[in-house]
Design brief:
With about 220 residues, the protein is of the alpha/beta class. The protein is about 35% helix and about 10% strand. The chain contains eight helices and six strands, in the order H-H-E-H-E-H-H-E-E-H-E-H-E-H. Strands 3-2-5-6 form a four-stranded parallel sheet. Strand 5, helix 7 and strand 6 form a beta-alpha-beta unit. About 35% of the residues are buried. The model has no long low-confidence stretch (mean pLDDT about 95). One of its GO terms (biological process) is base-excision repair, AP site formation via deaminated base removal. InterPro entries: UDG_fam1 (IPR002043), Ura-DNA_Glyclase_AS (IPR018085), Uracil-DNA_glycosylase-like (IPR005122), Uracil-DNA_glycosylase-like_sf (IPR036895). It is found in: Cytoplasm.
Length: about 220
């Protein structure tokens, strides 16, 4: 299968693209785009891969599903385009950064400036029908993104993995904690942030770890 994706990722994931499950996934996704309103626009499905090459990744933030509301999701987990209202989970992330590092809460929910620094916010599922959260689960995306996590764990060193909520925490089994820093907390959703996300200090802890390894920290 020939998938349009940044070269450093393509050469590492070509084996996945050639597997039968991915062929089936591509057929499903193509048919969905043909008959329904699917997010993100097709050319942005792999946007975070194109914007953050494999060797540039320093921090991995794991999510589950794309935002299902039109105009919000453009291929970067938790992020929204300039001018779009900041969703609740992202606002709580900004609030924790403010409390943790003293940084002002941004007016924009666009996280591209993080991505340019090597932050890799990855959803487990990369497409969704508009207004139908979870509509593309269990079609093959999870197999693919699990392979992405394994590749990062196996072929890189000294990464920070942020796993928020029970779903993300299930990915611990894919990560070699002897080589990487794995941080877990409650999900930043307004429904759960006060049950362990607020006060987790993941952003300062990530920077302290990166500094200790001689790696440039993130300007959150």
């Amino acid at each position: 299968m020939n998938v349009r994706i940044e070269e450093s990722w393509r050469k590492r994931l070509q084996d996945e693209f050639d597997k039968p499950y991915f062929e089936r996934l591509v057929s499903f996704v193509r048919s969905e785009y043909g008959r329904a309103h699917v997010l993100p626009p097709g050319h942005l499905i792999f946007h975070v891969f194109d914007a953050c090459p494999f060797e540039s990744v320093r921090v991995v933030i794991l999510g589950q599903d794309p935002y299902p509301n039109p105009g919000q999701y453009y291929g970067v987990c938790f992020s929204v385009p300039e001018g779009v209202a900041i969703p609740g989970s992202l606002f709580n992330m900004f609030k924790e950064i403010h409390d943790d590092l003293g940084k002002p809460i941004p007016a924009s929910g666009n996280l591209d400036r993080w991505v340019r620094q090597g932050v890799f916010p990855l959803n487990s599922v990369l497409t969704v029908r508009a207004h139908e959260t979870g509509s593309h689960r269990n079609m093959g995306w999870e197999i693919f993104t699990d392979a992405v996590i394994r590749k990062l764990s196996d072929e890189r060193e000294n990464l920070v993995f942020m796993l928020w909520g029970s779903y993300a925490k299930e990915k611990i089994a894919l990560i070699d904690a002897r080589k990487h820093l794995v941080l877990t907390a409650a999900h930043p959703s307004p429904r759960s942030a006060d049950r362990g996300f607020f006060g987790c200090r993941h952003f300062s802890r990530a920077n302290a770890f990166l500094r200790s390894k001689g790696i440039r920290e993130i300007d959150w």
